[in-house]
Design brief:
Layout lengths: L12 E7 L3 H14 L9 H4 L15 H4 L8 E7 L5 H8 L4 H6 L1 H5 L4 E2 L22 H18 L2 E8 L16 H9 L7 H11 L4 E3 L9 H10 L2 E4 L6 H14 L3 E11 L2 H5 L3 H19 L5 H4 L3 E8 L8 E9 L5 E9 L2 H21 L4 E2 L22 H15 L15
Parallel strand pairs: 1-2, 1-4, 2-3, 4-5, 5-6, 6-11, 7-8
Antiparallel strand pairs: 7-9, 9-10
The structure holds nicotinamide-adenine-dinucleotide (NAD).
Length: 438
């Protein structure tokens, strides 16, 4: 048994702030309004629907997670956000085309009241977005960070929040690896003041959040928090961070299937994944530099699950390819195809086809909610820096330097639940079970 740690109660209101008020963010807001009204159960949300087994199987203790750990009640959430387009959340949700007219009409009043704060936006990082009309202007990146900090303080005051958390739901930025300016907090702050071109908008949001003591979760594949400078700030101000890239559709399937093949020692010679999607995310990803960010995030998954070095006969020659095709007629209703070439006993080949007709934002919204609630919990529990236990939700989990990320969904789930047990002073579950037979 471990010692229960002290966690501050979730009293007062929690402001969930989303840079980006597009498909995922507005689906998140509308879903929470629908749940509050009792129109739908919180499907897909582990914090709301998940149970956690405690103690031995014979004890029959299996509370809801939200009753086991002190999470913020959905009625105590206030939403806000930034976007370079001035559409309120109702207008943005209508354009995103995820929810039907009936659901939109039902929550029109609450959604219309969420108006985006002017964004820190730089077209250089998201070339496909044209005609933006809600963008901040300032002399330096430092001034932009200051403006975001002021937005957060004003939001907290106006909406009477006791705490804030930020979840990046904005477009995927161009792929540009970290550079010298990201090495230390000092060099990063100097770079903010000198308008260093290597500092992306998402990094300015993350910096501003951490300066305000606001936890930051990254739903896109940008390297936002994966730099020594941002981690130094997170440590200094004792704020949790996590990322990156919501694990919603095709990659979710990959991290369910691949661990199964590996568990059975089945070989893989090829995995070809292709998608069509027609939402704004798809349009942004149509630019090669932005697709590169996504590709890096999507490709890393199989490598670490399969461990080709340890299993060369099974995975050494795997050919893994991921394609994303922008195809407007489908809107947010992405379709993905996976052709998986596997081989078995005596090397005989077999094929598996997965055709997933998914709804991207329907899968991503509960992930954004859970990340917000768990990041707030982590902060109240005195945790800071990288929250690896939230890997479960992410395509490209951030981990401490020198570690490889854990991608297997079921190991990730065990890690998440054991973390909660550990914090609450409950025994960790190892599934050994000797005691039932001795
Ligand atoms: N939908 C999914 O299932 C899913 C899964 C994994 C990751 N993601 C990522 O989540 C993010 C959001 O996805 P989406 O489908 O909602 O996309 P979206 O294009 O509908 O919404 C993104 C919004 O961000 C805004 N934006 C762009 N730059 C901004 C900035 N600097 N500051 C504030 N707002 C900015 C855009 O105007 C847009 O309204 C994307 O990066 C996407 O790659 C989505």
């Amino acid at each position: 048994m471990t010692q229960k740690i002290s966690i501050e109660p979730a009293s007062g209101k929690l402001g969930i702030l989303t840079p980006g008020m597009g498909a995922v963010a507005t689906t998140l807001y509308a879903g929470v309004f629908a749940i509050r009204k009792g129109n739908t159960p919180p499907i897909g949300s582990v914090t709301q629907m998940g149970h956690i087994r405690l103690g031995k199987r014979t004890e029959n203790r299996n509370p809801l997670i939200k009753e086991f750990v002190p999470l913020t009640d959905l009625n105590d959430i206030v939403f806000g956000g930034w976007d370079p387009y001035s559409d309120n959340a109702f207008e943005a949700a209508s354009k995103a085309g995820v929810l039907n007219d009936k659901d939109l009409a039902e929550h029109k009043k609450e959604l219309s009241a969420i108006k985006p704060m002017p964004a820190v936006f730089d077209k250089d990082w998201v070339t496909k977005l044209e005609n933006t009309d809600n963008v901040k202007t300032a002399k330096t990146k430092w001034d932009y960070a200051e403006a975001l900090r002021e937005d957060m303080r004003n939001f907290k005051k106006t909406h009477n929040c006791s705490r804030l958390v930020m979840v990046w739901c904005a477009s995927t930025e161009a792929y540009r690896p970290a550079s010298a300016v990201h090495k230390t907090l000092q060099s990063f702050e100097a770079g903010l003041k000198s308008n260093d071109v290597a500092i992306a908008p998402s990094q300015i949001y993350a910096y501003a959040a951490l300066k305000e003591g606001v936890p930051f979760a990254n739903g896109a594949p940008n390297i936002t928090c994966d730099t020594p400078a941002i981690l130094e700030l997170a440590a200094q101000n004792k704020v949790p961070v996590c990322g990156k890239d919501f694990k919603s559709g095709q990659t979710l399937m990959k991290t369910i299937l691949a661990p199964g093949f590996k568990a059975r020692m089945l070989g893989l010679s090829g995995w070809f994944s292709t998608n069509i999607l027609g939402n704004r995310d798809g349009e942004v990803l149509d630019a090669p530099e932005n697709f590169k960010s996504k590709e890096v995030s999507k490709l890393s998954v199989l490598e670490t699950i399969l461990q080709a070095d340890a299993y060369p006969d099974l995975y050494k020659n795997l050919y893994h390819k991921v394609r994303i095709n922008y195809y407007p007629p489908r809107g947010d209703n992405k379709e993905s195809w996976d052709n998986i070439d596997i081989f078995g006993w005596m090397g005989y080949p077999m094929q598996i086809k997965v055709n997933f007709l998914c709804r991207d934002s329907i899968l991503a919204a509960p992930i954004a909610l859970d990340l917000a609630l768990f990041m707030d919990l982590a902060k109240r529990a005195g945790k800071h820096g990288i929250q690896e236990w939230l890997s479960f939700y992410l395509k490209s989990p951030q981990v401490a330097e020198g570690l490889y990320p854990e991608h297997d969904l079921f190991i990730q789930q065990t890690k998440l639940k054991n973390t909660l047990r550990h914090w609450m002073g409950e025994e960790l579950i190892t599934h050994l079970g000797n005691e039932y037979y001795e």
